[in-house]
Amino acid sequence: ERRQRGTRTCFDRTGRSVSQVMGPGAIRAYTGEKLNGTNWSSFEFGFTAYLIDYDLIDALNRDLEDQAMQNNVFSVLIAAIESSQFVLVKKTRTPKQAWTALKSL
């Protein structure tokens, strides 16, 4: 596995890299416990550890220069919360904005 800042090369069963399947720089979906309004502490721990693995933790604290990667992190974050929490992030457009809104829980 070869790593570059903000990207990760993994391979599927056919030997194709994930970037060939998902597009360059794509990150996989977060598979930890979804944020449901009562589990902020465990969600925060799991999601930040997930982003650290991809070297993308900065996306929660500042806007990224790579707009495509910023959009990808935003999408993964939104998919990692229960739909009942969407009201908290519906006016946000970046991972930083969404994270700030979610911390209010």
TrEMBL record:
It comes from the Eukaryota. This is Uncharacterized protein.
